[in-house]
Amino acid sequence: MTTEIAGSSARATRGGIFLYFSELLERPVVDCDGLAIGRLWDLSIRLGEPYPLIRQVFIRPPGRSQILLIAAGNQVRSWTSTPIPLLARLSELRPGRREDETQILLREELLDKQVVDVSGAKLERVNDLSLLVVREGEMILAHIDVGLRGLVRRLGWERGLDATVRVVNSKARYLKAEQLIGWKYIAPTLADPAGLRLAFSQKSVERLHPADLAEILEDLPPASRSSIFDALEVATAARVLSEVDDPKIQEDLLAEERDPEKAADLLETMPPDAAADMLAEMPEEKAEDLLARMQPGDRQTVSTLMRHEEDTAGGLMTTEMITFPATITVAEAFARLREAARDVEFLYQFYVVDDRKRLLGSVNMRRLFSAHDSDRLEDVMAPWTIAVHPEDPASTVAETIERYNLPAVPVVDEEGALVGMITVDDVLTEVLPLAWKKKLRL
Amino acid sequence: MEKEAAALTGPLRKPRAMGWRRALLILAVIGPGIITANVDNDAGGITTYSLAGAQYGTRMLWTLLPITLALIVVQEMSARMGAVTGKGLADLIRENYGVKLTFYLMITLLLANYGNTVSEFAGVAASLELFGVSKFVSVPVAAGAIWVLVVRGTYRIVERIFLVACVIYFVYPISAFLTHPPWGQVIKATVVPEKIQFNAGYLGMLIGLVGTTIAPWMQFYLQSSVVEKGIRKDRYWISRWDVIVGCIVTDVVAFFIIIACAFTLHSRGVAINDAADAARSLEPLAGRYASSLFAAGLLNASLFSAAILPLATVYYVCEAFGWEAGVDKKYGEAKAFYGIYTAMIVLGAAVVLLPGFPLIQTMFVSQVANGIALPFVLVFMLLLINRRKLMGDSVNGPFFNAVAWGTTVIMIGLTLMLLATSFGVRIGGS
């Protein structure tokens, strides 16, 4: 969420004082006796906290570029003074690295890096950080600054430019336009090989719509892409994966999944038509290895789908659909629907078949709801058997759907048996040049 | 279970046999190096090589071997960084060196690339003037067409056409052969270095030759293309060949342009004052059609680069500052992107329309500016590629470091000498 804070007067809030990280960097630090220690180099916070406390202070002693001295965050007597006085003695400070895996360093791993803004569903680059001094010795990371003002401040031009702008137009929007995003809405895109630290921070990413998250992943550099993707839960990851437009990126995400069992789980969770499309794009051994790891039922569905060309009805269709015998009542149909609803993606159009799976007609939700519980399906159903053949090209599928205003069209083989269904959104991506347009970016 | 086995052994879609897989893999990875190489021979490139041949005959030929070596080393570094880090060069500079340095580097790059864009439009003007089209018609039409093409997102298709049209460069080798140059002398001039002359003209030409061949923006462009193609460390060996072949093609074309000009223009004491003069280097091949052929080649090169260069530049700037970028974004989402892009095209074209604007000189001077900006980019590349934290085991070896640092130091030295000689300071015995 981008908050606009009016002017610098509001920066001194009642609870405490806001400081910018860029103001603290390189500020001299002294110990409790006033002895100079060095300059402030970095701060660390713990991931996964909505209002993270500053845990450690890294100080660079003069002339020794390789060593950083560490003080705890609560050893700072005053954040707002220059130089910054510590409560500790110089001789008590130890050199070292960050405390544990769940911590990140603000300068090294956050400043100037890309982060995911969950509230705005887009990528941002961190220009500065806004820190809140709750009380002396206790400071939290409040916001990240992604705005132009933050950029200008880092360049050291804030005062000069503000003065100039004020002369030209004292009410200029620029003077007030702080673009701050609350830390709790931020997910860092650390390229962390261990993946351990990410698990703490990626919870917020799962609040994004999978389609938005997929778009963000496509915009990220590959390394950060897979580190975020790896940290997602299987159900979310599967939805995100099927929303990614670029087959190359899809394949990379799946191929770089470290755990092949998880990759197989992903494929099982995805709609079978999407899984089949992806496997068909992969090198053969890799695809067969993943298929072999899948549950037998899912494996069979997916490999059947894979035998059709991608741009034909057979390649577009899903076998995940709901069929009813003609003889059951509406009440029975509702009972079956309730049971199937958990596993089936598309719950609007259902097909009525005979005992040899031949298509007799179709019913949709409106027909079911407006019928009586005791009505038999063969009396309720629309008796049309408009269908496409698995070999029909995508264009025929699209024309059929458009002509008859269908939300989905059934796929029927030579013997009249229902083998699958194509929903309008699956054929749309095939017909619209939209997915193609995305690839045009340099 | 039996049915299931049948399902698994049935003919899967798109079966990929092993031999084919390797071929497909190579086709998928190849491209960035070759494309970059062809964009490299743009309006500024053709002009600079032509001027080098016309003014100095074969005396500049020896520079091509060291330039090719440096080009291969520098381009290989870009491609390697892209493959290993998965990030663009602007991205890496911002993340590792902070806002300040990035800002000043981006300003330098923006100015240098603006100069290049002007030179591409100068190329459009010069080439179409040979067909009798006034620059007041050709330049606005070209600028408008490029803007629409790129913003409407049909650019990738047109890129293919430009790329195919690049075969036009092969007219230079043919023309060069038809001049029947004394090959012994040519080969000697190529392998035996000449003594450097310390005057502004010669030094400027030297910097221009390096600057047009190893243009700073190419390093950003190549690295982003490698990242965009999703080339990773395991497939990188193919990319390396793509880069090497691309670099050699670039400089072979340069070699023949210089020879063609040396033995048609320099030998007759003709100086290049406008595009019509430069076109005469193709007379041995095309006779009276030389100017049409030259114009077609120059036009293709200019349009190709005028489409790629401003777009690529604005991507790096936005990447570095974290602004939304991409032709698939709406204007409201990516104001900075569209703003800078449009400004580069409009201002680039507008300057060329000034009455009496020197077309050939501009195309040449922009390449000298490239050469002067090059060391700044090289220093960043060298610092980044030698960071073990970033590159792991793929840091530069001593040979690559020596060549790249050598190029950096030489370019800084040449620039300082050019400045000194321009201000009338006499160096050495000249």
Sheet having the most strands of chain A: 7 strands, mixed
H/E element sequence of chain B:
HHHHHHHHHHHHHHHHHHHH
Sheet-strand content of chain B, in percent, reads under 5%
Number of helices of chain B: 20
Individual helix count of chain A: 20
List keywords for this structure.
heterodimer, A: 442 residues, alpha+beta, MgtE N-terminal fold, CBS-domain, seven-stranded mixed beta sheet, five-stranded antiparallel beta sheet, 20 helices, 37% helix, B: 430 residues, mainly alpha, Amino acid/polyamine transporter I, globular, disordered N terminus
What report would you give on this structure?
The complex is a heterodimer of chains A (442) and B (430). Helix content of chain A is 37%, strand content 21%. Chain A has helices at residues 21-24, 106-109, 148-155, 158-168, 196-201, 210-219, 222-231, 234-243, 247-255, 260-269, 272-281, 284-293, 296-306, 313-316, 330-340, 365-370, 377-380, 394-404, 424-431, 434-438, and strands spanning 2-3, 17-20, 28-30, 36-46, 54-60, 69-72, 84-85, 94-95, 103-105, 114-117, 122-125, 128-135, 138-145, 180-182, 186-188, 323-325, 349-353, 359-364, 408-412, 418-423. The relative contact order of chain A is 0.07. Chain B is mainly α and 430 residues long. Chain B has a single domain (41-391, 401-422), classed as Amino acid/polyamine transporter I (Up-down Bundle), CATH 1.20.1740.10. In chain B, 75% of the residues lie in helices and 0% in strands. Chain B has helices spanning 2-9, 18-29, 32-40, 43-56, 64-85, 89-130, 135-151, 155-165, 171-178, 183-191, 200-213, 216-228, 236-264, 275-279, 283-286, 290-321, 335-352, 359-385, 388-391, 398-422. In chain B, helix 6 packs antiparallel against helix 16 and helix 16 packs antiparallel against helix 17. Mean pLDDT of chain B is 82; it is low at 1-18. The A-B interface holds A 111-114, 122-127, 146, 151, 154-156, 221-224, 248-249, 252, 280-281, 283-284, 287-288, 291, 296, 299-300, 303-304, 306-310, 315, 437-442 and B 1, 3-4, 7-8, 10-16, 21, 85-88, 91, 94-95, 98-100, 103, 153-156, 224-225, 227-228, 230, 232, 311-312, 315, 321-322, 324, 326-328.
